[in-house]
Structures are given as structure tokens and as C-alpha cells.
Amino acid sequence: MIANWLILALVLLLGGAFLLVFGRRQSDIKRTRLTVNRELYQQRIQELENEAKDGVLSKSALAAAKTELDKRFVNENAELEQKLETSQPVKLWVVALLVMVIASGVYYGSGSWRLQLQADDALLALPELGRRALQNDQEQLTPRELDTFALGLRQKLARQPNDAVAWLVYGRVMLAQGQMEQAIDAMQRSYDLQPDRMGTLLSFSQLLLSTGEPRYLAQAAELLVQALQQNPQSPDALSLLGFVAYEQQDWQEAVTAWQLLLEQLEPGDGRYAVIEEALSDARQRLAGADTAIRVTVDLAPELQAAVPEGATLFVYVRDPDGNPMPAAVVKQPVTEFPVTVTLSDADAMLADYTLSSLEQWQVLARISADERIDASPGDLDGRSEVITTITNETLNVTINNRINDGR
């Protein structure tokens, strides 16, 4: 609001300066012309008196000449003053008024005053919105209030770019609005300013974990190690480290982190059951990590021309006499054949239905045009014999069949 009044005052000041400068210039012009007329008048009077003194003019002729000169001087000055007063000042006022009107119209018409007003209001509302957002009270911020909160934080950060806490809060707001890249950038700024702040380490690592991307998972693990160096018993850091390790399929690291966490929690703690279940799953996956089937998939020569462009290869294991759902599956783009993959419990689709939970296994390979593992007409597939014992030997599967409409 103050900025709006300052801009309006600046426009009026410019208009006033215009009037002052050009008005004074016109006044100077007026005085200059009147002065010249007066000097000419006095010079002519002196000439008439010299002529009378020399006997050229009689006293009556001198008096008549002075009277005529006085009339002419008065008339000329009156005409000059009238011309200056009726033309130039009016034009100056018109020009000055146009300048102020146009400048004000451009400012208000462009909507800049509205944006500035919104920014000022957001900055004023920032403390109250921040209190409600950070205290996690029952009254949640509405989407409009969240927008105002974000705008207020941007105003604050523009004035105080080294405020690490403000950057952290702004990152959380961006995350709430679904702006993942802006959230990561903001929390990175907060971390760069205060790399040892525990709240930043935990919030930033949780954000990176939510992306599921390998590069961010690795960065999250580094942040959590740093947090645990400060506080080895931090429940939040141990919990997050377990989930990061789980996403990276580092079952041993996940088991270690969650075991340490579970030792700190009371059975009545709301987190206890969740961590206990996650720990059990990680232990099962760790136990089944040694159960793996190595498969080499080849394509029959007569079907090489039938592979669709951009096709997807699925290699999976199922129970030949039980659940048709794959117990483990690997999906990858079709490149060249033969191709070798390894299937283990880490490739399970369900935590309780894994490769190690079966008593017999059959491996299937399918080339799909629509990126779906379900059989569709035109897909190509092949399967192995049923095996009852998993060995270290590589199992060979040849894709030699085209799926027809009737299958």
C-alpha cells in the first residue's frame, strides 16, 4: 500500500516539476519582452527630448509626441500580456495534466498496483498464516490462504535471502502445492545456509525420499547419515533411513535401521505396529535375497520380424499349479537377443507372494506391444519347463510362439 502511494506521489511530483520548469520559462519570456518594450520606450523619450533641445520639435509637438508614445507603449504591453496569459499557461496546464493522467492510467491499467497490493497484504498476513501452518492446528489453510502464504514468503525471502528457516518453510509450502522442483530447490537453499540443522536434514531427506528417484534416494541417505551423526538415537532419522534403504533394495540396511528404532518405541506407540510390519517384510526379503533364478532369453529367428517397434520384454516366474500372478517380474525395453536377467524376491509384486514362497517354478518371457504383462493377440512368448529346485545354473527360455485371438 505504501509503495502505491509513493508511486502516485512521484507522478504528481513529476507533473508539478513540469509546470514549475516550463511555467518559469514562460514567465521569464514574458518579463524579457516587457523589459525590451520598456527600454525602447525610454530610448524614444530620450530621442524626443534631444530633438526638442536641438530646436527640431516645439514644446507642443514634444508634448503631443510623448502622449502618442505613451498610448502606444501601454497598448503594446497590454496586447503582449493578454497573448501570453491566454495561450501559453493554458497549454502548459493541459500538457501537465495529460502527463499525469497518462502516467497514472498506465500504472493502474497494467494491474501493477493490484499485484503490489496483494504482495503487501501477503506480507502482513505472513505471521498469522505461518503460525497456523507450523502448529498443524485443526484449522487447515485453504488453497487461497496457501497461495497468500507462499506469496508472503517470497516477499520475505526477497528482503532476507539468507533466512534458512524461511526457505525450509517455503519448500514445505511448494510441496503442499505439488511444485516438487521448487520444493527441492527451496530446501536445498535452506540446507546450504544451515547444513547442520536437524529439522532441515529430516525434512529435506523426507522430500527426496518421496520422489522415489535413485539420485535423490542417494542424497537422502547421505543427509540421514549426517543427522544420525548428530543424534544416533533420532527416531525420525532411523525411520526415514529404513525406508530409503528399502527403496534402494538394501534389505540389510533397512533391517538394521528399523531394529534400532523398534528398540526405542513402546508397543503402545502408534508407529510401533507400522515399523514392526515393515521390519518383518524387510527380513523376508533379506532371507529371500539368496533365492534367485538366472534366465537367458532368446528369440526364435522366424519371429524376429514380428517384434513391434518400441516393444516391452517381460520375464516373470509363476507357480505352474497355483496362483497365475507372477511371483517375480522384470520389465525392460526390447533391445537385442539373447538377454540375461536375474529374478529374485526383490522383484516381487506383493510382499507376501515371492519367489522364495513357492515350491515349484516356471519362467515365462513375453514381448508386448502395449506395455502390459497380460497376454494380448499378436504378443510373442515362450516358457521354460517346470523346475522344482533352484540352482546356480542359468535357465534358458526361447520366445517361439505368437499369441492368436483364440488363445
UniProtKB/TrEMBL annotation:
Residues 119-272 form the Cytochrome c-type biogenesis protein H TPR domain. Keywords: Cytochrome c-type biogenesis, Membrane, Repeat, TPR repeat, Transmembrane, Transmembrane helix. Its main location: other. TPR repeats lie at residues 164-197. One of its GO terms (cellular component) is cell envelope. Residues 293-400 form the Cytochrome c-type biogenesis protein H Ig-like domain. One of its GO terms (biological process) is cytochrome complex assembly. It is found in: Cell envelope. It comes from the Bacteria. The chain crosses the membrane at residues 6-23, 92-110. The keyword Repeat applies. PANTHER family: CYTOCHROME C-TYPE BIOGENESIS PROTEIN CCMH. This is Cytochrome c-type biogenesis protein CcmI.
